[in-house]
Amino acid sequence: MKTCPSCGSRYTDDTLLFCLSDGSRLADETSAGEVTVVLGETETVARPRASSGTSAHPSQPVGPPASRTWIAVLVTAVGMLGLFVLIAVVGFFVWRNLGTQGAPPISENRNGGSTTTTPYSSPTQRPTATPAKPSPEPTIARTPEPRANYRSTTRLTMGKGSYSAPFSGEINPGDTRTFVLACRSGQSLSATVSGGPCVTFSGGGTSLSRTTTAGDNSVSVINTCTQITRFSVRISVI
Length: 238
Known about the structure:
It is built from two helices and 13 strands.
């Protein structure tokens, strides 16, 4: 049987070397209780030595001092109180400044002895001058010029026993009028046009002559001016 020298626990298992409670080295109970006696000397009692690093008496847990807890609580309370006071002071000054800025100015009327309050008016913003846009130029409506109404192609015929076919009419500016005359092949065709400098034949000039072909032969005049022009044309075939 083995015994723990620290806590006094006993174990019947001889294979154990250390105490299961505090870890001290176990001692045999028979060897721990024996007393060695030597003749002629004083009696010596051998006691088992406690293992190094362990105390003969188990250590008791030491808790934090109660005074330190109270000090921490007191410091926290004082800090929170100071924070509340600071917030209250700042809020008071902000409220005071806002009230001073928003209050209307007071003016005293010396004549009647009474005090009148002039409402506060914020400075009005001056309107910004907008540059005037240039007015568009008036559009002059142009009246369309009158135009003569006629067919662009006119057929001429000669009377019985006549060798010429006269024609008089109007022609619009820049326009062309064509005159058609039925002829036999090999005849001599001559034509003149009068209408001032504006009306000429399409090939230029105011007179022409050529040999006809069998069938329709045409002569064209053109107006080179910018207004309606009256003209006369005479075509002769021999």
